[in-house]
Write a structure and sequence with these properties.
CO_DH_flav_C, Molybdopterin dehydrogenase, Enolase-like, domain 1
């Protein structure tokens, strides 16, 4: 029998049935939530999976719980809902801005947090650097149990995870930090960003930087923390001009990725300006 050219879609009514379905389908299956990346696979000349497991009817995956010590966000939460839920949280502004300014309104209403984190081929994901600078953790479920990982670790292994595993929740610790998100699209708001800088800064009683957490996205294949710049800012008053100068001195540690929308050298060259913009936004 000739296989069908069209993928099958099983809409799971619960988390347990979704995990069962993913385990049964193995490498031939994949989760389907917002679908904004999967539906464009033919445009990228990528093969669709033969089978998908729909997650849209699972209540656990669409919950947002904002507490005093942490925020729990289901992997099925859309960018639009996330931006709305976190709009009044100063320490989480970086995540609210990343969610509320990514892509365009239509995509933000469909694209999910889990999809943004799991799509390893999408280097320009806004939510990844935002969550990195917030020290987020991810929760992964299988039929055997639950595992929690630092986001940095998850990003390093996401391509090799067994297909029966499912990202279900993201946990973000609360802090007294102020945060901001700066991105540079080339032409218009709907473009993928050429470079992204996300930061969260905690100051001491004298107004000096007690801790800075800075993450860079879209410049390299995988977003990462800018630890040398974090260390350079610590102990001094937070100033946009100083941050720009230090970022200029340290930007050479990045190797920009070449793409149809921008060459690698350009992505690196705009980082200091984005750092300046993000620091200025904190004031």
């Amino acid at each position: 029998m000739t296989p069908s050219p069209h993928p099958s879609l099983y809409v799971a009514p619960s988390l347990d049935t979704a995990l069962d379905a993913l385990a049964e389908r193995g490498a031939e299956g994949a989760p389907f939530a917002g679908g904004t990346w999967i539906m464009r696979a033919p445009i990228r000349h990528e093969r669709l999976r033969p089978a998908y497991v729909g997650l849209g009817r699972i209540p656990e995956l669409t919950r947002i719980e904002v507490g005093d010590s942490h925020v729990s966000i289901g992997a099925g939460v859309t960018h639009a809902r996330l931006a709305e839920a976190l709009a009044d949280a100063p320490d989480l502004q970086v995540l609210a801005e990343a969610a509320g300014r990514s892509a365009n309104p239509a995509v933000r209403r469909a694209a999910t947090l889990g999809g943004n984190l799991c799509t390893s081929g999408f280097a320009a994901a806004d939510l990844v650097p935002a969550l990195l600078c917030l020290d987020a953790e991810v929760e992964i479920r299988s039929r055997e149990g639950t595992e929690r990982l630092a986001l940095k670790e998850f990003l390093s292994i996401r391509q090799s995870l067994h297909p029966s595993l499912l990202l279900t929740r993201i946990l973000v610790p609360r802090s007294p930090a102020r945060s901001a998100h700066a991105r540079l699209p080339l032409r218009k708001a709907g473009d993928y960003p050429t470079a992204i800088v996300s930061l969260a800064v905690t100051s001491d009683d004298d107004g000096r930087v007690a801790q800075a957490r800075i993450a860079v996205g879209s410049v390299e294949a995988v977003a990462r923390r800018w630890t040398r710049l974090e260390a350079a800012l610590a102990g001094a008053p937070l100033d946009a001009g100083t941050a720009h100068r230090l970022a200029t001195e340290l930007a050479g540690e990045f190797t920009g990725r070449d793409g149809v929308e921008a060459p690698g050298w350009y992505r690196v060259s705009v980082l200091p300006a984005l750092v300046r913009r993000a620091v200025a936004a904190l004031h």
